[in-house]
Design goal:
alpha/beta; Protocatechuate 4,5-dioxygenase, Chain B; 9 helices; 10 strands; 27% strand
């Protein structure tokens, strides 16, 4: 089976970057990403990670990384005290990146190749990848969130990732690197409001039950209620790929790894979406 074979919401709060700065209430996210990565690498055995990061922001176009190797140093420009410079080295997949751009363009979505030799990862890409695939066994293609893309375009862009993967016979795991609620305050120990926590948990429950169409139908109201990170664009892109999986006849469900955790009043989770048989096993 090829295409997007699983999708996941993963956390990237900068205090996850180094163990010595991760507060106790966020360590559940580190443990969850390690566990999820182990399950995906050993059971799902993907050919490729495609990561949609809310910290790679594009104004107009959807970009796909087409570098044969991602080799650089990640610095959190907004928090260099927390991530002053972390090395990474992962293989890329230029053929898939090119096919994805073509798939977007075929769907009427403006897609471009990112071939810059000087491009370096944002921390939304780096932080979860270091735990999901610490030995860099699986190639990575990065995708941004696009400011001028509404939820409908994000849904179609996610479906195009599934289309490109099927065309190349690739088993892809799509990662949405994002918080859920994201109405920030100073002080990383603060929880979101009870209303926004409840809305987040209701959204997670829809995924767990495999109610993908309902999750999509309610997504606009949900994302506005919780002030979802980057307007919910990464989540919507993931939902588009998941809806495409469902359209191929897959009965879907989800499983949460670890606990819901706060960071400056944002809500963060690690959730895997895939075929019911995979989730139950």
């Amino acid at each position: 089976m090829s295409g997007v074979v699983a999708a996941a919401i993963v956390a990237h709060v900068p205090t996850l970057a180094r163990v010595e700065i991760t507060p106790p209430y966020q360590r559940t996210l580190v443990d969850a990403e390690r566990a999820l990565g182990n399950v995906l690498r050993t059971t799902v055995k993907p050919d490729l990670w495609v990561i949609v990061s809310t910290h790679w922001v594009s104004t107009f176009n959807w970009s796909a990384t087409c570098q044969p190797m991602h080799d650089g140093v990640c610095v959190a420009s907004e928090a260099p005290d927390l991530i002053p410079g972390s090395r990474y080295r992962y293989r890329g997949d230029p053929a898939f990146g090119s096919a994805l751009v073509q798939s977007w363009n075929d769907a009427g979505i403006p897609g471009v190749r990112n071939e810059s030799a000087h491009y370096e990862w944002d921390y939304g890409s780096f932080v979860p990848m270091q735990y999901l695939d610490p030995l860099a066994d699986v190639p990575v293609v990065g995708v941004p969130v696009v400011l001028l893309a509404d939820h409908d375009e994000c849904l179609r862009a996610g479906a195009a990732i599934h289309t490109a993967a099927k065309a190349l016979g690739k088993r892809v795991v799509l990662l949405a690197s994002t918080a859920l609620t994201h109405l920030l305050v100073r002080g990383r120990h603060h929880m979101p409001t009870a209303e926004r926590v409840e809305a987040d948990k209701n959204f997670i429950d829809l995924l767990v039950r495999g109610a993908i169409d309902e999750a999509i139908n309610k997504f606009g109201d949900y994302s506005r209620t919780v002030a979802a990170e980057m307007g919910g664009r990464a989540l919507a892109t993931m939902l588009g790929a998941v809806r495409a999986m469902k359209g191929d006849g897959s009965a879907l469900a989800a499983k949460q790894y670890g606990d819901y955790a706060q960071s400056s009043a944002s809500g963060n989770v690690v959730v895997l979406v895939g075929e019911q048989s995979m989730i139950s096993n």
